[in-house]
Amino acid sequence: MTASLTFRSFGHWLAALVVGGSLIGCGSVSGHLGRDTFKPYVPEVVQGNFVSREQRQALRPGMPRAQVREILGTPLIASLFHAERWDYAFSIQRQGVAPQNFRLTVYFKGDVLEQVDSDVLPSESEFAGRLVRPQSVGKLPALQASEEELRKFKSPSPPQGLAAPPAALPRSYPPLEPVSR
Q1: Of the four listed, 72, 123, 130, 171, which is most buried by Cβ atoms within 10 Å?
Q2: Could you give the CA distance from residue 105 to residue 90 in angstroms, rounded to a whole number?
């Protein structure tokens, strides 16, 4: 019975020692690490249909709905209660790039395009340029070598007494499956 009590008290001391050591370790780590050391990963969020300035400029009053859908794609919002209106919205949020939001609304009268209302839309090339994150590139090494450095990489001639290289490959191959009749 005394041995089990001694073992229990030893276990308590050992647990207290481990907890104390952990807390001391955490205190010293926080002093050396800054706030920006561990950043959570923020996934890229893309919602909606991107409509470019070129697509917007292709729209003309009097176009049928089918032609508008062909140019812009399927609308993000096409309500049963507002059948004469299609809404296109696009937003993208990426880590390191400012969030971007664009919207375009198309109004119909019957089956014909009547009016287009939109934000200032970027062209496709402008939008692609906005997606690129600035990258810092260090100084690139010079890509040149002297004749002596190139000789190190030349393949040695094949040893004497070996067979000649194999003949050229055939121009056609037999079929993989038997021909059915």
Answers
A1: 72
A2: 12
